[in-house]
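Hi everyone,

Forwarding the result from last night's run.
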Amino acid sequence: MLKKIFFLSLFLFAYNSFAVTGQDSLNKLNISGKVIDSYNKLISDAELDVSIDGKYYKTEKTSSDGSFIIQIDSLQSLNNIEIKTSKPTYRNNKLEIEKSQLAYKEGTYSFFSDITIDHILGPAFYISVIILLLVYILIGFDLCHRTLAASLGAALVLLVTYTFGSFNQGYFVISFEDAMKAIDLNVIFLLFGMMIIVGIMKITGVFQWLAYKSYQLAKGNILTLVILLSVITAIVSAFLDNVTTMLLIAPVTLEITMILGINPFSFLLPEIMASNMGGTATLIGDPPNIMIGSYAGLTFNQFVVHLTPIIIVCMVVLLVLIKFYFGKEYAKAKIENVDALLKKLKEEYKITDSQLLKKSLIVLGIVILMFITHGFLHMEVSIAALVGASLLLMISKVNIVEVLEKEVEWPTLIFFMMLFIVVGAAESTGLIQMIANSVSKLSGGNLTIAILLIIWVSGIASSIIDNIPFTATMLPIVAYLTHTIPGAGNTLWWALSLGACLGGNGTLVGASANIVTAGLAEKRGYKITFFNYLKVCAPITLATLVVSSILLLLLK
């Protein structure tokens, strides 16, 4: 009897063991979540190695949004699950999961968790810092063309990654795939499309005609003429690139001042500052705004509603101060030459192709309408610019090869692309996050302090260095502050826009439009020196930054 009981017990034990083993062999495991850094930035291409009971099972990579899904079938054991997360320039993370933490349903065990990995301040970090500073120095001191400076920086970060980084992961700065993702094609295509539209419109002579009509409306009053030219420059710059606007307006202005016998600087300076101010008023008016809008997902209408009223007040401040600085110079004008000048301008600066102008204005109107509705349509602004450029090329029947060769500023587009890679490298190694954390601590989480910090740091920095690379560096910083400071909304983006764009007026090298206009004046024999520009523009820039700060704080 005892033998029977013993064998029966042995049989039941074996049966139960077999049954459990069979059940476990059918178990499935699903682990999902996202990999982030300590600033809640999503990390793509991070490797996740899964081990169970010390046995390696699978490796997965995070997608572009930092998410991952790990699926393992036919598991016999679910004890001691371990996930090791790694990526170059980041510290490895080890996540251990107990079976009790798993959710079970219909033969499948599931687990969801975000995994945080932190940057390592290793060789890659210092290399990205050195290269970013090198690019800034080359651009700031005009040691070489800015496109060459940015291209050199992009080439260096990739060279280091795929030479030293191939042997030591500590030197892995940024992968080629991440470098390509860092390039904001929305910015590139928007600039490309608008360059084509402006290039075709330029053929019609409409911009020079506007300058002539301004002089005609002023009826010999020099201050009125300056105000009209400045306002027209600001309006045109709100929709077209600042540099292009000054390339079209400055030659006519030089012609007018030569005949009037006054210093061209008294006309060119308010036009330069008006171009930078007008460009601040809309999403498409100035490269920093294009970059901000694309990065933050802001619409054309949002820029108009929040920034245009502030810019109108800044324009009033500019025109009042210009009267104070140049009133005596305007009084020197030879008014007796008004009729002769009007006749000369009427002959030289007239509409050369009215049919093309009508077509251009219709297309430009369609593009602006698409800009206004792009938020509702969930459409990137670059699509509107590309549609407009393609349509105008089609109906204008101009030589597309000639337009692409002469009107598209390829060095500018390449500069943007290379710069995005350099800044992307600094972001991937943790430099941008470190700066963001410092600014956040300095502001103490206070929105008012953060607004003043961003607008004034941006304003001063953009007066010293080109505002485009500075803005590119600040984008992820402001994004972090926007998400961490309570009630920030989009206010910090407006602070960055105002600081970067208005700050560009501070010195001769602050914005591209300044340098281009000075070059045009020098070709005609009128040299604009750095200190002559600084003496007048620095106080006006400070005044507009003060006004912008007050208004932004009141309207936040």
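The beta strands are 27-36, 47-52, 55-61, 67-75, 81-86, 93-97, 103-105, 108-112, 115-116.

Cheers,
N.
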